[in-house]
């Protein structure tokens, strides 16, 4: 049996859901031989097992290396670190009743020291894999495979759902704008309005605010009108990873490759969540909706023109259409795990 505990995101502690999140200042990059040298993660992660009698160190992760204490060797791993430097997830195998107790995660970054803990109760002979959800949230713009502005309101909601997300609310888009989000594309929101966030107004992006920054709105629109959509993702019970080959894969080969690895092609929303958590790979890969994208957290000219974000490979120069299915790219896979939000128990 295994237990998988995950703490990730920007430094704050929530008393309601026990959420530890931190903002990463330097990141670790993989799979891009042409990239400049990047500093290793500068924060320190420490997992501790706490009982009434004592606190026992399980592992310490620092500068891209993980040191596991002798008692936990062969039982404990960091799931995505340092590939995703902001992911403090820890996986424990071979659980028994003596493993019941409190597990504390401490993240030290400079002079900041933040922590959170989770209580685990093991009963009987455990067979269940338990995963705590990753606390990352993101609003992203989504365009249909065919062209720009082709989604009715109902189709927009369905597109977000198929991307492991939900159609965003006005408040969620406003929060994303407040965090610096900029996108000059009108998209549906959950209240049947159409809006888009503009940080630096320019011609054809002025909207109803003219030269002022802010979220533009078309107001409430007829459900049969067509636009793009803004989606909101916040839950990911598993991991996103690349499968690479010298010859690359067609779209259908990519799906088969992920299946061979006990996974499936990742959705657009899952890749956005992985990017938000720090994933940085300068290789384009197939996703489940037949789009081709790649996550960039460190700006360099050869990777998306020096821009950050989830970069998309379009078929046409006007940024529409997806590559043909027989085009060859890497595969971006998702391996899901059972998770619960209400109980922290491992049972038969």
TrEMBL record:
SMART domains xrefs: LINK (SM00445)
Start and end residues of each Link domain: 138-233, 238-335
InterPro entries linked: C-type_lectin-like/link_sf, CTDL_fold, Hyaluronan_bind_Proteoglycan, Ig-like_dom, Ig-like_dom_sf, Ig-like_fold, Ig/MHC_CS, Ig_V-set
Keywords: Disulfide bond, Immunoglobulin domain, Metal-binding, Repeat, Secreted
Localization terms from the record: Secreted
Entry's transmembrane regions: none
Chief site of localization: secreted
An individual GO BP term: central nervous system development
Superkingdom to which the source organism belongs: Eukaryota
Keyword Nucleotide-binding: no
CC annotations in GO: extracellular space; perineuronal net; synapse
Gene3D superfamilies tied to this protein: Immunoglobulins, Mannose-Binding Protein A, subunit A
Disulfide topology: 184-205, 282-303
Residues annotated as signal peptide: none
UniProt-recorded Gene Ontology molecular function terms: hyaluronic acid binding; metal ion binding
Residue ranges of domain Ig-like in the record: 41-121
Protein family: Belongs to the aggrecan/versican proteoglycan family.
Protein name in the entry: Uncharacterized protein
Organism encoding this protein: Mola mola (Ocean sunfish)
